Amino acid sequence: MLAGKTKNRIHSWFEERLGLSSVREFIGHKTVPLHSATLWYYFGGITLFLFVIQVLTGVLLLLYYRPTPSEAYESVQFIMTRVQFGWLVRSIHSWSANLMILSAVIHMFSVVFLRAYRRPRELTWLSGILLLGLALGFGFSGYLLPWNTVSYFATKVGTDMAASIPFIGHHLARFLRGGEDVGGATLTRFFGFHVAVLPGLATLLMLLHLALVQKCGISSPPWVENEYRRKNARIPQMPFFPNFFLRELMAWYAALGVLGCLAALFPWELGEKADPFASAPAGIRPEWYFLAPFYTLKLIPSHVGFIEGELLGLVAFAVLALVWVALPFWATDYEGLDRARLVTGAGVLLLAYLVTFSILGYWR
Amino acid sequence: MSLRVNRPMRTLPNRQLWIIGTKSLPTRVSPVGRHGRRVTSIFHATFFLSSLVLISTSLLEPMVTEAEDSCITCHSALEGNLQTPVKVFSTDVHQQRGFSCADCHGGNRNLDDPESAMSRSRGFLGKIARTAVPKLCARCHSDANLIHKFKPQQRVDQFALYQTSIHGKRIAAGDAAAANCVDCHSVHDIREVRDPLSPVHPLRLPETCAHCHADPAHMAKYKLETNQFAEYRRSVHWEALAQRGDLSAPSCASCHGNHGATPPQVSSVAAVCGTCHTLFEELYNRSPHQPVFASMGLGGCVVCHSNHAVKKPSADMLAGANAVCAQCHESTSTGGAAATEMARLISSLDVALARSDEILHRAQHSGMEVSEALLRQQEGREDLVKARVAVHNFRVGQVSKPVNDGLAISSETYGAGESALKERKFRRVGLAFSLLTIVVTMSGLWLAIRSMENKSRGISPGD
Question: Is the pTM of this model over 0.80?
Answer without folding.
Answer: no
